[in-house]
Amino acid sequence: MINLTPVERAALRAEAHGLKPVVMIGESGLTPAVMKEIELGLDSHGLIKVRVFGDDREARVGMYETICAELGAAPVQHIGKLLVLYRPKKDVEKERTGKAGKGMRMVTIVKPSASGTKKPSVSKVLLKGNERVTEGGTIKRAKVRQKSTKKASLA
């Protein structure tokens, strides 16, 4: 389980204020499917809200502690029937960018300054599968869009 300082916990509570619940726990309680969904939510979002349908406060506190212990999450806030959980996101982006083929890829763009006396600007950009970087450092679609035969005959 992750330990948070009061300042970190306050910042996470503020960040979670606008979130909607990602997982809802019904009368069946903490089933393996619910635990898997909570884990997926933590992996992709890092900070999630979980709504528990049930009037027993002790049962909600027990679920909260069980989730945090089993998934290695930090308890941020338990207010009413809402539980706020935090666990740092797993970096899935790095695994995907190493693959070849279609999909997203990270590209570093170096643009020289206009005057030539200043340092060149360096930026990292995430490109889609059908995009390319031109010599000038702009991003364009790699494939030419097909022209409509109907529109060509009307012109």
Automatic annotation (TrEMBL):
SMART domains: CRS1_YhbY. InterPro entries: RNA-binding_CRM, RNA-binding_domain, YhbY-like_sf. Residues 140-155 have a biased composition (Basic residues). It comes from the Bacteria. The keyword Methyltransferase does not apply. Residues 2-98 form the CRM domain. Keywords: RNA-binding. This is Ribosome assembly RNA-binding protein YhbY. It comes from Pseudoduganella rivuli.
